[in-house]
Amino acid sequence: MALAKAINESLRRALESDPKVLIMGEDVGKLGGVFRVTDGLHKDFGEDRVIDTPLAESGIVGTAIGLALRGYRPVVEIQFDGFVFPAYDQIVTQLAKMHARSLGKVKLPVVIRIPYGGGIGAVEHHSESPEALFAHVAGLKVVSPSNAADAYWMMQQAIQSDDPVIYFEPKRRYWDKAEVDTEAIPGPLHGARVVREGTDLTLAAYGPMVKLCQEVADAAAEEGRSLEVVDLRSLSPVDFDTIQTSVEKTRRLVVVHEAPVFLGSGAEIAARITERCFYHLEAPVLRVGGYHAPYPPARLEEEYLPDLDRVLDAVDRSLAY
């Protein structure tokens, strides 16, 4: 099924299995969401479970916090990545802190879904990648699936978590299809996964860039180079052990994400792996990402976003050491 459909099916399963699960957001009900991710849920579960909210992100998240305090498990949709900032105060000063503030007595099982990233030709504030802002905040879990199977199971695990989870959905991958086994036993929510074995260099990515890295590995294979691709899946916490094991084998690492390189998640990964693998590395850890500039108009986004050539260039530079 498509990635968007997988999330829909996962939400449906959660609504069916737990009456305390609620879905909230702008246009998530009758419309089914602007990407139709919640399509059909309002009709089947009613307006008390799938709730159309006012256009007020801070109010949406604040209400979800109150509901979680009363025992519910709200799943909140922020319609687009750039719309999350009115709710940033509620997320980082309330949602992320309540567990510690109450010395562990209060849990806030809130999932915040954020479609993010570019590649869809959208207008301003509709193609941003703010994941590092949330990964920096203690008390939040931050994840991003790259395929339909992970989208299904990571949503199940996020809803079941007693900690707040920021669930970043790669909107340009919504229509990518993959096999989804809804009866499988999922791996850990915060575990990275090697999705392609290789020996010469490791590519680490998450969300929308995993597919690109697999395409890069295909292109490199035509030149006789063997690249390993690691899907990080989680940005807080990060599964550094899986990355380290891969880098100790390949001795080189390139981290790829859509977000700006400057202070992006790749910076933390580069620093940690340099500390852990200093005597294994044969080249500095390199990063490929967006530029340190506001996301451009749609006609320029292909110049802004990492592509096959930019990642291959980083691969060439790493292998040249």
UniProtKB/TrEMBL annotation:
Output the Gene Ontology terms for molecular function: magnesium ion binding; oxidoreductase activity
Gene3D superfamilies noted in UniProt:
3.40.50.920, 3.40.50.970
Matching InterPro entries, A to Z? Answer: THDP-binding, Transketo_C/PFOR_II, Transketolase-like_Pyr-bd, Transketolase_C
Q: Which residues form the Transketolase-like pyrimidine-binding domain?
A: 1-176
* Residues making up the signal peptide according to the UniProt record: none
Q: Which cofactor does it need?
A: thiamine diphosphate
Give the highest taxon in the source lineage.
Bacteria
Q: What is its EC number?
A: 1.2.4.-
Q: What are the entry keywords? A: Oxidoreductase, Thiamine pyrophosphate
What is the name of the protein in this document?
A: Alpha-ketoacid dehydrogenase subunit beta
What is the source species? Streptomyces rochei (Streptomyces parvullus)
